[in-house]
Amino acid sequence: MAAAHLPPRSCDTFVALPPATIGERIIFGKNSDRPCDEVQEVVYFPSASHEPGAKLECTYIEIEQVSHTHAVVLSRPAWLWGAEMGANEHGVCIGNEAVWGREEASDSEALLGMDLVRLGLERADSAEKALEVIAELLERHGQGGNCMEDESIFTYHNSFLIADRKEAWILETSGKYWAAEKIEDGFHISNQYSITTKIDREHPDMRDYAKSKGWWDCKREFNFAVIYSYLNTARIDASGSRSCEGRKLLEKNNGNITVETMMDILRDKESGINMEGGFLTTGSMASVLPKDPRLPCVHYFTGTPDPARSVFKPFIFVPNIQQLKKTCSPAYGPEDPVKKIPRFQSKPDRKHELYKKHEVAAAIIESTKERGENMLKKMRTLEKEKIAEMEEIAHSSLRDSTLVVNLFAEAIEEELKAYS
Q1: SS3 breakdown of the chain: % helix, strand, coil, rounded to 5?
Q2: Which sequence positions are flagged as catalytic?
Q3: What b-and-e string marks burial along 159-177, b requiring 16 or more CB atoms within 10 Å of the CB?
Q4: Segments of the chain with pLDDT less than 70
Q5: Residue 93: strand pairing partners
């Protein structure tokens, strides 16, 4: 029997640039909306050098490794190689979105959009370079394969929001074809095809392909979103509504956007940005990217579902960081059902320690009013204290890196105390 194809779902990714933000800094944020039983882990990989001719095993396929990879921190579904969102040591942040259009997404195993997020972070020291890395890999290896740990087929094309200390780009794809727009206004949101007539970079054959398919007659102005999107846009109305609501929330705070503003937006349930149900927000990220290269970038991750019931914990790239054990899921090696053919015949337990403790805490918050409110208050107090500490660091150069080498791990320990 043929595997079932699931209907479109999406995430929400945001970036705010000066003068929309307070201070000379870019604010990045993303909610990862995934199947409700999927565990998202937060993991760290140091920079590394690789031998000539080395190979790299991604989620489904093997590709050529490069000579050097940058240090990265990633929030990712625990069953795959790539990531939903993350950052690297050079202040590059990337989040991807599921997008659907006239071109059918491929079931054939290639690079996942989430693989491309990690590859862009590992191989690029700027936002525009990450765009080029992803575009080159798309051309060489393509994108495709099941994006869910299940026999049901969930496939999509990808849109990427890429930011660094200086600028931000949207890269939107359909198969190997793509268009990119440099974001020059104060803020933007991307969770469906959104590039219209302002196309700053593109695949050299992107317009000819649209013409060959009969989507474009060369007479009207080329509008990427119109030409490559569904004929029946009702299929993505839900993501369109969230896109509109997200823009409203950003516009409401225009000129005053901080990382706390971004966290509030990611927590917003009324807009659907903080998703609930069969697909829910399984992990969240918010980053502060100062334009001054002397100041550290600060990246906040939840590592747990529902940002309204989670703590955003800070991470700063410094030497000698160890793996983030309490947000790192169990590994099953070659015995992992994802690696065996046929794939996805079973699901092992992928819950990391923080996820397990948060699961209990979330149940208490849901079922016990007074105790739950007290727990949430402790969590918010902890988060505000960490943000205040990071603001002090963000306004001065970090002279002693040992003070923050265990920053994320220590914040987890304090979060666990708030649960007790």
Answers
A1: 30, 25, 45
A2: 11
A3: bbbbbbbebbbbbbbbbbb
A4: 1-10, 186-191, 231-240
A5: 87, 163
